[in-house]
Amino acid sequence: MAMASERQFAAIKGAKVLMVGAGGIGCELLKTLALSGFQDIHIIDMDTIEVSNLNRQFLFRQSHVGQSKAKVARDAVLNFRPHMSITAHHANVKDPEFNVEFFKQFNVVLNGLDNLDARRHVNRLCLAADVPLVESGTTGFLGQVTVHVKGKTECYECQPKPAPKTYPVCTITSTPSKFVHCIVWAKDLLFAKLFGDKNQENDLNVRSSDAASSSEHAEDVFERRKDEDIDQYGRRIYDHVFGYNIEVALSNKETWKNRNRPRPIYTAGVLPEELSKQNGNMDTIYAADITTVSAMASLGLKNPQETWTLMENSRVFLEALKLFFVKREEEIGSLSFDKDDQLAVEFVTAAANIRAASFGIQLHSLFEAKGIAGNIVHAVATTNAVIAGLIVIEAIKVLLKDTDNYRMTYCLEHISRKMLLMPVEPYEPNKSCYVCSETPLSLEINTHRSKLRDFVEKIVKAKLGMNFPLIMHGSNLLYEVGDDLDEDEVANYAANLEKVLSELPSSVTGGTMLTVEDLQQELTCSINIKHREEFDEEKEPDGMVLSGWTQAPAAVKDDKKSIGNGGNASNALEHELAEANRDGEMEEISEPSVKKRKLSEVSIATILDGPEATADEIKNQKEVEKLDDDDDDEEDLVMIDDLNSVGNKKTRLQ
Ligand SMILES: Nc1ncnc2c1ncn2[C@@H]1O[C@H](COP(=O)(O)OP(=O)(O)OP(=O)(O)O)[C@@H](O)[C@H]1O
Ligand SMILES: [Zn+2]
Q1: What's the complex ipTM?
Q2: Does residue 148 sit in helix, strand or coil?
Q3: Neighbour tally for 444: CB within 10 Å
Q4: CA-closest residue to ligand 1 atom 25
Q5: Which residues, at least 6 apart from 301, have a Cβ–Cβ distance to it below 8 Å?
Q6: What is the position in ligand 1's atom list of the atom closest to the CA of 340?
Q7: Cβ neighbours of 82 (radius 10 Å)
Q8: Ligand 1 within 6 A of 21 CB?
Q9: CB 122 near ligand 1, within 6 Å
Q10: Mind listing the pLDDT tens digit for each residue in 225-273?
Q11: Centroid of ligand 1 to alpha carbon of 562 (angstroms)
């Protein structure tokens, strides 16, 4: 970055900044803010430091494992910038203390988060408090920085985000065709059934319509029997899920008409007698630290990048199950899958592989399985550093209210049009966005069948991302949460939750307008109810369809315009992102938001010079550097090698 000007210095010095998230991006960001001269920073992060963070979250050391990220990050930076004011909050940004009043004290909010839920929440608070937000995300080599200023640019939610990838239940429970289906089965069904909450709903026992035989089995097949030792239990589970269940599924001929039939697998067929009895050598395991309990280790399997044979997977399966019962018994019943839990990853890898073998799907290594199960694209520290730099550049523009020069920047994996960093002009607010404008939404729902609870869970919480919702029909309160409710109200709302919409005290039917509010986010939206009888189970699994906020009308228009110009310049980028989006791994990258924008006609050199380039310079440049979609026509593009051509002297490709 070029040296800051006087004006920039003044803005930096006087700014009070809120940084949310002190992980991969956050650590880089805090360092860059400190080195750029920022003086007053608040940090919110709810997590403690884990060993797996240390490779890239460089403010943290081995000795900090288990401590608050926010606090350790603060202390680390105060070591080299002792006069800064840094306030650390070891807390969830969704906690009620971080209300609109709290947000109002800041000049800008910078996000270094890793989930949609928290991002949406911060977006709403920034809108309510009228504080600009610089939002960011990285996935491997890909990254993006976007600027959200109320009334000036689109908000974080103006473009609908891609729904996280889900799979039809029957694909997971009975007809897997890809390895990821086996992983989901192993993790969300089998692991959850064996080691998680026993009372949760679980589709593991759903098999062909043969209810009679399953009824006696279904209930307690996963319970360990009194007279059973742990080896017997493990083998019984194995034979049940990989053998018996597959036999039952095969008995439904219809299912396999056009599919390859799976093969049942039993321990007896896979493991030599003595191995299936006496598995690993548990004496070599140190029981002290659960993170070192490992089936691989006790079986002498060393390389996580090696694909195990069916026999090895079977041994890992039985050994991991046994280790859970012997070494981690107190956790059983409350475990949920965690990609940083070695034993859990071993179990899930083995189970997924055995299932894959049964269905003729290729087996995978633990390393690969872990990536799929944890939805991980391995983090690249450099991407985080680049993104953090871009966040600071945009933050400075925001502080200077340099509106014309705000840019959304995408960091690509491969050079495209001679660029690795793609600057894009921010879009105007989407007038049909329910978050930053007041456009009502529509909901198609069966008002005679869906309960208020379904509406609250599937729409208000899951789709609208509300935390503390309140639902009104006219002036009648139908539902509310909060600490200050009296007993009657609590009972009343609990009763309402179980009623179908049309039978609520104030009947909700086709044509009803509901008002849904979140008091913390200070967000209100109106929902137009439309009654509909039937829903497609596969395509509309929620049994309701929310609409009204889909696409910026402006964006659609723009699209047409760019077709005339030979297509949209961001196609290459779109392709890049789509490629990286295999199996929905890219939760942070809002793919659709990219499609509708035209690339700004600004070169990388300008972006890196950011705040110093004047509007006029950019305008001049616009005239000479036109980015269109014709790949052969590259004469106007600035080359990536030209990064070191400083200032306004821009070299162009000839
Ligand atoms: N609701 C929230 N409130 C406060 N902090 C949050 C919230 N959601 C996420 N975070 C923080 O955002 C940070 C995101 O950092 P990052 O993406 O590097 O994830 P990580 O958990 O550190 O690493 P990884 O997920 O790759 O193991 C985390 O430190 C996490 O605690
Ligand atoms: Zn919006």
Answers
A1: 0.97
A2: strand
A3: 18
A4: 114
A5: 308, 312, 316
A6: 27
A7: 7
A8: yes
A9: no
A10: 888 999 999 999 999 999 999 999 999 888 898 889 999 999 999 987 6
A11: 38
Q: Which residue has the tokens 């002290």?
A: 288
584 Rama class: left (phi>0) / alpha (psi -120 to 50) / beta: left
Q: Would residue 436 show up in a list of annotated catalytic residues for this protein? A: no
Instruction: Name the residue of 113, 341, 342, 383 whose CB sits within 8 Å of the most ligand 1 atoms, as the mutation to test its pocket.
Output: 113
The beta-carbon contacts of 489-497 under 8 Å, at least 24 apart in sequence, are: 496/452, 497/451, 497/452, 497/453, 497/456
Q: Which of 202-206, 275-279, 367-371 has the highest mean pLDDT?
A: 367-371
Out of 155, 158, 170, 182, which one is annotated catalytic? 170
Tell me the chain's radius of gyration from C-alpha atoms.
Answer: 28
Region of poorest pLDDT, from 125-139, 487-501, 532-546, 568-582:
568-582
Please name the amino acid found at residue 8. Answer: Q
This prediction has a pTM of 0.70
- Measured from the alpha carbon of residue 45, the closest ligand is 1
Cα-based torsion angle of the residue sequence 299, 300, 305, 310 in order, rounded to the nearest 10 degrees: -40
Distance in angstroms (rounded) separating the CA atoms of residues 95 and 110: 18
Q: How far is the CA of 156 from the centre of ligand 2 (A)?
A: 6
Ligand 2 is an ion; residues with CB less than 5 A from it = 155, 158, 433, 435-436
19: helix, coil or strand?
strand
Which residue has 């991302």 as its token pair? 465
Can you tell me the distance from the alpha carbon of 137 to that of 580, in angstroms, rounded to the nearest whole number? 14
CB of 455 within 8 A of CB of 445? yes
Q: Which residues contact 649 (CB under 8 A, 6 or more apart)?
A: none
Q: Residue with structure tokens 């494992």?
A: 65
Q: Which two tokens stand for residue 93?
A: 């940004």
Residue 400 is predicted with a pLDDT of 97
Let me know: does 93 contact 99? Beta carbons within 8 Å.
no
Reduced to 3 states (helix: H, G, I; strand: E, B; else coil), residue 159 is: coil
Cα 21 to ligand 1 centre (Å): 6
Question: Which residues neighbour 57 within 8 Å (Cβ) at sequence distance 6 or greater?
Answer: 22, 23, 24, 26, 27, 49, 69
**Residue type for position 52:** S
Distance of CA 619 to the CA centre of its chain: 37
Q: Compute, in angstroms, the gap from residue 596 CA to the centroid of ligand 2.
A: 15
Q: What 3-state class would DSSP assign to 236?
A: helix
Do 125 and 101 meet the contact criterion of CB atoms below 8 Å apart? no
From CA 101, how far away is CA 89, in angstroms rounded?
16
Q: Whose alpha carbon is nearest atom 9 of ligand 1?
A: 113
The distance of Cα 10 from the centroid of its chain, to the nearest Å, equals 37
**Within a 13 Å sphere around the CA of 103, how many CA atoms are in the beta-carbon half?**
27
Closest approach atom of ligand 1 to CA 91: 4
